[in-house]
Amino acid sequence: TLHADEPTPEVDWSAGAVSLLSTARPWPETGRPRRAGVSAFGMGGTNAHVIVEQADTEHTEHAEPAAHADPERAESAPADDAGARGTEHEALPWVVAGKTERALTAQAARLRDHLERHPELRPLDVAGTLVDGRAALEHRAVVVGADRTELLAGLDQLARDAEGAGRPDGAHVVRGTVTPAADRPVFVFPGQGAQWVGMARELMASAPVFAESMARCGEALA
Q1: What's the pTM value of the predicted model, to 2 decimals?
Q2: Residue 38 and residue 197: Cα distance in Å, rounded?
């Protein structure tokens, strides 16, 4: 229990089996998966509850660390299993990004060359690293393939083709751009205080953009 220095005196803690968990304690095996309920009762009035369950060790005990796709920080994984060939996947995405179109194609070329020099890197690990370990820049492309051969063919297509279109050797390449962060809409959800009468009156009088937005919202709700 976080942020509870002293239990409330409004509850009789000596009755029943409920207590505040103020320090870590052992959680012994019982022969079945561990499950726990986690509650969050926010000061702003948001109440949430989630039940978590222990992972199935039968499917996780053989998992291996992801091999990094960055040429400067490559790690290898065994190449003698299906994961190295990517044959256990119907489709696997490799995501490539760059600040400009030229940077995107250059990144695809570097990645292609690096993976050709390191055939031991597993396609699944490369896919994970490209999503979690690389910056999500404006110009993006996704190469989708069922195995290493198709994925490398798509990277080659992306590196060579300035437009990034087509379906080379069965590997599908999708390319596009995303809206810069500065141009994205922002949604603000206030906590306590939204019930104050006239609470935004000063802001509406001093900020024309806010006033125009409120007027459009009013029309939509009407």
Answers
A1: 0.43
A2: 36
CA 27, distance to chain mean position in Å, is 30
Residue found under tokens 């031991």:
120
Query: Is the domain 66-181 a CATH 1.20.1290.10 member?
Result: no
CB atoms within 10 A of CB 166: 13
Q: Minimal CA–CA distance to 82: which of 124, 41, 26? A: 124
Of 67, 96, 61, the residue nearest 84 (C-alpha): 67
45 phi/psi in degrees, rounded to 5: 105, 0
pLDDT tens track for 120-160: 999 999 999 998 888 888 888 999 988 888 899 889 988 88
> In a 3-state reduction of DSSP, which class is residue 215?
helix
Q: Mean pLDDT over all residues of the chain?
A: 77
Of residues 18 and 183, more confidently modeled: 18
Q: How is 174-200 classified by DSSP, letter by letter?
A: EEEE---GGGS-------TTTTSTTTT
Q: Tokens for 203, please give them.
A: 């802001």
Per-domain residue ranges for the chain?
66-181
Q: What angle do CA 93, 97, 102 make, to 5 degrees?
A: 125
Query: Which amino acid belongs to residue 80?
Result: D
Residue the block writes with tokens 């003698």: 80
CA 128, CA 138: separation in Å to the nearest integer? Answer: 19
Amino acid at 156: D
How far, in Å, CA of 70 to CA of 133, rounded? Answer: 9
Higher local confidence (pLDDT), 189 or 61: 189
